[in-house]
Design brief:
Lambda_DNA-bd_dom_sf; 72% helix; globular; 434 Repressor (Amino-terminal Domain); HTH cro/C1-type domain-containing protein; single chain; Cro/C1-type_HTH
């Protein structure tokens, strides 16, 4: 099932662009194309999409390849989104620990 060529082009360009105005991690990907639409595009269940976003270390190579194919980007770009998501999660955890620790 299609998600619309315009949305697909916007997402693909955002992933390719990266940086301040692009898509740099999996959370940002889901801000541009929600889990339901991504599920329709890839054939993966919405729950799987959410799990892989919150636990990017679980993404399989076959899932990276399929996402890359469906989003018209290189597998390396999808792998970078996952790696960047892992770094973002780690940074969030460190910030949370800092906020919780007494002075």
């Amino acid at each position: 099932m299609s998600i619309g060529e315009s949305l697909l082009n916007t997402v693909s360009e955002g992933i390719e662009r990266g940086g301040d105005k692009g898509i740099n991690n999996l959370r940002q990907l889901l801000e541009h194309i929600n889990a339901t639409k991504l599920s329709r595009l890839t054939g993966y269940h919405k729950t799987t999409i959410h799990k892989k976003t919150t636990e990017p270390q679980l993404i399989k190579v076959e899932e990276i390849l399929k996402l890359a194919e469906k989003l018209n980007v290189s597998p390396e770009r999808i792998l970078n989104l996952a790696i960047n998501e892992m770094a973002a999660i780690e940074a969030d955890l460190k910030n949370k620990k800092r906020e919780e620790s007494p002075l």
